[in-house]
Amino acid sequence: MNIQINSLATDFNSIPIIDISPLVEKFDDANIHRDAGVCEVVTQLDKACREAGLFYLKGHGIPDSVLKEARDVIHEFFHMPLEEKIKIKLSMTTGCRGYQEVEENFTKGLPDVQEAIDFYKEFAYGMYGDMGKLLEGPNLWPSNPQNFEEVLKQYIDHCTVLSRKIMRGIALALGGSVDEFEGHIASNPFWVMRLIGYPMVSKQNGHAHTQSIGCGAHTDYGLLTLLNQDESISALEVMNKSGEWISVPPIHGTSICIIGDMLKILSNGLYEAALHRVINVSQQYRVSAVYFYEPNYDATIEPLDICVQKTGGIKKLGPAIYGEHLVSKVRNTFRF
Ligand SMILES: N=C(N)NCCCC[C@H](N)C(=O)O
Ligand SMILES: O=C(O)CCC(=O)C(=O)O
Ligand SMILES: [Fe+2]
Would you say the ipTM is above 0.90? Predict the structure, then answer.
């Protein structure tokens, strides 16, 4: 499958900030589509998904203490000596779960200046046949810091609940029913979590890196991404339609939401999968906790009829099987 990076519908120079608290409070309300506050959120989501594909979320309901505690334990982990970290080393035989050293992860053929740990939702062996094999196995949780697993599992639960609520808002924004993405699309949503550490540039002295590309330009693979980034370090960038990189600095009390490849297909290209990258030129070590909310692993993803009607009556994208898309990306990311 070839996912094109189309130019964005309208250009943008600043990133939208959406207060989604009405949606978070009323996501389960039978009359949600008639609620004035929710309708306003839905309008803003629609605009942000069309124009930017990446936006800030305010009023998302995940306590600041949960976000901060997650970043704290991630800092603690990456701060440990390498021999401790490689106890949970990622390989072909760990279901591609675990720790990767700096420059073991590639984007478009170039090594990323980051270390990371990958987690995937666990599933039964054989459940997805050949398509699932590469990612089979239990997650590798470090035993240090001691509270790591508990803190991050709690964080994942928060993200899953929030993502489902946002997807309900996006379903309405696309003109569908509130549970448009339940059923065969995302009734059993897959998830991925990537915890990333970006070394300081000063640590790269002696290397050829004058600019440290922490993560090369890419789009995310699934429905939407929730990003929890270190405060006070500006490193993330998103591309607008003029091809300019727009900075996405941390804003206290917000999280970042990024539209992924599968939502682009479902919307028949109405919504953009944001092209983004990370360059940490700060003098600080930066961490992020990146949670990816994905379709059912074995879902066949194609444009929704309501979206096809809105976009000229022809399916422009897909179909794609989500699990196949994910596995092809993972294969290109590592040199085992
Ligand atoms: N699960 C997601 N979206 N991870 C994004 C990781 C960054 C890009 C990856 N190295 C690649 O080459 O795709
Ligand atoms: O660390 C970040 O801010 C973003 C990382 C990212 O885009 C990814 O891992 O997909
Ligand atoms: Fe990303």
Answer: yes
